[in-house]
Amino acid sequence: MAYSIKLDSFEGPLDLLLHLIDKAEVDIYDIPIAEITEQYLATIDRMQELQLDVASEFVVMAATLLSIKSKMLLPRKEEQVFQPFLDMDVEEVDPREELVARLLEYKRYKLLAEQLREMEIGRNKVFTRPAENLAPYVREEDHTIKNVTLYDLIHALEKLVQKAKDKEPMTKVSRDEISIKDRMTQIRQLVRVGGGMVRFSQLFSKGATRSEIVTTFLALLELMKAKHITCIQNQLFQDIMICEAEGAQNDEL
Amino acid sequence: MNYDKLKGVIEGLLFISGDEGIDARQISEIVEVPEEEVVDLIEDMKADFRRAGRGVQIVEVAKAYQLTTLPEHVPYFERLATSPGQSTLSQAALETLAIIAYKQPLTRSEIEEIRGVKCEKALNTLLSKQLIREAGRAEGIGRPILYATTKEFLEHFGLREISDLPEPPVNLDIEEVRMEATALFGKQEEKTND
Amino acid sequence: MNYDKLKGVIEGLLFISGDEGIDARQISEIVEVPEEEVVDLIEDMKADFRRAGRGVQIVEVAKAYQLTTLPEHVPYFERLATSPGQSTLSQAALETLAIIAYKQPLTRSEIEEIRGVKCEKALNTLLSKQLIREAGRAEGIGRPILYATTKEFLEHFGLREISDLPEPPVNLDIEEVRMEATALFGKQEEKTND
């Protein structure tokens, strides 16, 4: 059951992978598997260190990546153009191919979901009014009601409760999640304000949510990778110091 | 803002205010224009609507402005009401009936608290269709009327008795639902994934 | 009946039909005017409304015509205490819905295969919001439930019909994606050669 909770910032392993590929600015059709696998595993490790339960899907993907990585290390057979039909060997196929196909398909739906989001936002900007009661327009002598079933009654109830649940749009909207990119900028500002140094614990507010923690962590990893910051820990269990990396001063925030 | 744009905004406000209507003071606060000017503008709009042969009109009920249909269009609405496939109970009436069915007997203000809107019109419809009846009066201030379903209600929905109603698909205690929703938003942070 | 009067009647019918909407065929039967003429008249009315700076517009949602407010008036409605709240879907629900919308009908495991994660909770959310429905069962082991979108789906996104969905970015067939990928791998090798 513990495995059913997923990493907060990502919709799943494919989402995380797409993020890593995007950040690494590599070709999705030619993924540097060793590099991406390393980053993927590192992210999962950090999550576990933060005691976030890592969903089984993330673990399965880690295994898949490792298996692709090992296959890539094997010497590739020479291409045999005229292989017998039944003998279409697996080795001939790029071990990454299936993963790439899955990533591409998932990405496609992610883009479509984005378009749906835009349409939803547009539709949320217009209001209608409830349909008017037509009963008064039915002639008085006719007391019967037509086309109303028990199902309609239950359905009405469901709609009603749904409306009550949706009545809190402001709470939802205000819970704006911060992007990794914004968090990166914030951290660099904090470091700068702190005279080139900030304690790790200072990066988190008291009531920091899991997604804030995860976002902050990913932002730190990104900054380290980009060599904007370095992390120093003098002694075990001591607070980690986030320091501005040499030469990072002149970079644009 | 020019007057034409202002009139458009006021029409939109009237449109979404529905049966509850909206008064000049509220409009004035929203559009940030003095109340007297709002009143003048609405008088203007009434004339505009008539002149343009519009299908709706602005009426003043209990100091609130409302958009309503035109009395001369009633024959068309009658045709709509009796056209095939047309449900003769509105969503409002259905919701009200569902609440009464599951929580009877209860008062109008209790229903309104659950629905969050007035339901006088819906109650009248349901009474005239004999789907609900007055079932005595509640204790307390004003001794308000209690509503309950009727024999005709059971007949229409093919129920032997009221206890034959299916389990409510949802929690009908709106306060609890709201709390649930709030709790869910909290939980959402832990489980954004599904 | 002249066209101006007819437009007034149609406006009244649109107004009274509210969020349920009314389609051209129904209007045509009620006003006894051919359906194509009704469609033309409504197109005319859309333009009239814009020209006159009206506060409402006619939109086509789920094959029915509806009156709605204007998007640019949102800031004013937000100041209204009773402003109708509308809901947005979580990313998980939206991704699941996108897959269903484009590949319907399909089973839960087919959706999960694409998303790479379980989606039971997202499906339940979508079912309770009536954006999807169960559409029979697939052949094969266990005869799993098939899911498809509903009329409420069209309403939620303001679509006239399912074919109005935006074009998918590229081919959605996994087999074709594979071929595409293979083709690209091929090209890549060519490129690396020069």
TrEMBL record, chain A:
Any idea which UniProt keywords this protein has? Cell cycle, Cell division, Chromosome partition, Cytoplasm
What Gene Ontology cellular component terms go with this record? cytoplasm
Pfam families, per the entry: SMC_ScpA
Tell me, what is an example of a GO biological process annotation in this record? Answer: DNA replication
The record, for InterPro entries, names: ScpA (IPR003768), ScpA-like_C (IPR023093)
Under Gene3D superfamilies, the record lists: 6.10.250.2410, Structural maintenance of chromosome 1. Chain E
Q: Does the keyword Protease apply?
A: no
Localization per record: Cytoplasm
Q: What is its main location?
A: cytoplasm
**Does the keyword section mention Cytoplasm?**
yes
Q: What does this protein do?
A: Participates in chromosomal partition during cell division. May act via the formation of a condensin-like complex containing Smc and ScpB that pull DNA away from mid-cell into both cell halves.
> What subunit structure does UniProt give?
Component of a cohesin-like complex composed of ScpA, ScpB and the Smc homodimer, in which ScpA and ScpB bind to the head domain of Smc. The presence of the three proteins is required for the association of the complex with DNA.
**Similarity field:** Belongs to the ScpA family.
Return the protein name.
Segregation and condensation protein A
Q: Species name for this entry?
A: Brevibacillus gelatini
Automatic annotation (TrEMBL), chains B, C:
Q: Would the keyword Cytoplasm be found if you checked this record's keyword annotation? A: yes
Q: Which GO terms describe its biological process?
A: cell division; chromosome separation; DNA replication
TM ranges: none
The record, for InterPro entries, names: ScpB_csome_segregation (IPR005234), WH-like_DNA-bd_sf (IPR036388), WH_DNA-bd_sf (IPR036390)
Q: Indicate the principal place this protein occupies in or around the cell.
A: cytoplasm
Q: Where in the cell is it found?
A: Cytoplasm
Q: Which UniProt keywords apply?
A: Cell cycle, Cell division, Chromosome partition, Cytoplasm
One GO cellular component, as annotated = cytoplasm
* Keyword Cytoplasm appears in the UniProt entry: yes
The family assignment reads:
Belongs to the ScpB family.
Q: How does it assemble?
A: Homodimer. Homodimerization may be required to stabilize the binding of ScpA to the Smc head domains. Component of a cohesin-like complex composed of ScpA, ScpB and the Smc homodimer, in which ScpA and ScpB bind to the head domain of Smc. The presence of the three proteins is required for the association of the complex with DNA.
* Matching HAMAP family: ScpB (MF_01804)
The protein's role, per its UniProt record = Participates in chromosomal partition during cell division. May act via the formation of a condensin-like complex containing Smc and ScpA that pull DNA away from mid-cell into both cell halves.
What protein is this chain from?
Segregation and condensation protein B
| Protein species of origin | Brevibacillus gelatini
